[in-house]
Structures are given as structure tokens and as C-alpha cells.
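Batch job 17 of 40 flagged for manual review because the log was empty.
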Amino acid sequence: MDNDALRDELMGAVEDFLKTQNLDLVDLIFRYEGRNLVLRLLVDMPGGGISIGDCTSLNKALSAFLEGKNILQQHYTLEVSSPGLDRPLKTKQDFSRCVNRKVRFFLREPIEGKLEYAGIITKVVDETVYVDIGIRIIEIQLSKITTGKQEMEEV
């Protein structure tokens, strides 16, 4: 099985397991570091706020689950962590969670000549994110967004 197919199988299995735990998979990073395979999972609760203790317990439960599934035929290191405050935003659900918050967007193709925008998400409807960039509200199709990240407000 090639790496892409293996990653897809892992993603499906891990997402199914996390749903039973009422958790969201934010990102799955599957890569070799030297000769060692590392599987990094960024996991969060639907409303945010997963703790270190939650990650530790989840790491043990996921290890047992993955061993039972026997998807990986080699030794690997599993790391489960919180996505942190600057979690990557990729899905409609991610952007919806950030309504009324300041976000920076990185685009696949330019909109009005720019590949990057920052502003406050006013709403997410269907496959469109509405962003107040200060002078007006622009519409960005989810398909045009590579990733986004919430920007922390200065106190």
C-alpha cells in the first residue's frame, strides 16, 4: 500500500474512533523522521479545550485501537496533542467555530490580486466564508482557501 492510501485508511479509522469519543480530528500528520514513522494527531473537543490529560488518555486508547486494526505493519511513534490556539482552519466547521473572530486566510488563487487576507468572519453559509476586512465584507469560497488561522487579539 502506498503512503497516500495508508494515510487515507488511517484517517478514516481515526476519525471513526474519535467520533465515538465525541472528539474532532483537526489534522493527521503521517511522515518519516529519519527511519522512524511518526503519526501526529491534532485532536480537539467540538467546542475546543482538550487538556493534556485528555491527550494522554487518548494516546493510550488510540494506540490500542490502531494495534487492533493492524493498519500499520511497522513500528511507529504516536503523538496526540491539542491543536493549540492557532489551530489550522480547513473545514466549514473550523471556520464556523470562528465566527466573530479575527482570522488570517491563505488562498489557492488570488482574489482581487491577493493570496492572503485577514479579517473578522461574519458568517459561513454553504461553502462561502464572509469576512469583514475593515473596508467591506468579502466572500471567500472554501474551495479557494488553502488554510486559515485564528489571530489572537492583543490585550
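Reviewer: the log was empty due to a logging misconfiguration, but the result itself is present. The two ends are 50 Å apart (CA to CA). Unflagging and moving on to job 18.
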